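Interim report to the steering committee. The following record documents the input for NAD(P)-dependent dehydrogenase (Short-subunit alcohol dehydrogenase family) (262 residues).
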Amino acid sequence: MANEQAKAIFITGGASGIGRAVAQRFAREDWLVGLADVDAKGLKESAALLPEGCASTHVMDVRDPDGWHEELTLFTQRTGRLDVLFNNAGIALGGPFAQTGLDDLERIIAINFTGVVLGARIGHAFLKDTPGSCLLNTASAAALYGTSGGAIYSATKFAVRGLTEALDGEWAADAIKVRSLMPSFIDTPLLDKSVTGSNEQVRDRVKAAGLEFTPVEEVADTAWRAVHDNGLHHVVGKTARRLKFASRWMPGKLRKMARRQL
C-alpha cells in the first residue's frame, strides 16, 4: 500500500507543452513529479523548471510495454505511491486522410491510442495501490466531433474518450477515478507539424480559420481541477466549449462546416 508522504503524479509527454505545464502546476502543490518522454533533452529542461528534488525523469516510449513497467516501478519505488497517471503523450497529424501515408497512420494510432491503452493497463496495479487515485487522459476537442482535415487524429482522440468513459465505470470499484482533458488549440510544439500534402504548419491552419490559442497554463489548471472534482470530461478553451455545444445542439451545421473545411 502507498505510504503517507507527498502525493505523486507520473506524466507522459513531459518534455514540453501540456505535460511540462501540468508538472509545474502540480509541483506548486508540493507533489512529486515523474516526467516521461522520448526527448531526454526536453525532460532535463522540464525538470530544471521544478523545485529541487521534486522531479525524476524517465526516458521511455509509450509504445513499449517493458518501458512502462520499468519506469512506473522506478518512480513508485521513489515515491511509495501513484496518485495520478497522466496519459498525455501524443502527436498531431493533419491533412487529407486519403493522402496520408500508411506509416504515418500507424504511428499516430500507436502513440495517441495504443500508448494510452498501455499506460492504463500497466498503470492500473500501481493506481489501485493508492486509494483515491486518478487516471487522467489527454483527449482533445477533436473528440467532440470528427475533424475534417484531421481524421486520424480525431479518431484516436475519440478512442481515448471512449476508453476514459469505459474505465470510469470499470475502475470505480477499485477507487480509481478516470478523467479526460479536451483542450482546443493549445500553443505547443504540436502545432509546428506540417499538414500532409501542404507546406503549411498546423499552426497556420488554425490562424487562417480565425481560431484562438488557449494558454497552456489554462490546461494545467483544468488538469488540477479534473483530478479533484467529479466531472468526467473537461473541455478547455473557447473553441472546445463552442464545439461541445454545437455537437449536441447543431450537428447538422457542423457537418456543413466540415464539408467546406478542406
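Residues 102-128 form the longest helix (27 residues). The committee is asked to note this result when reviewing the revised timeline.
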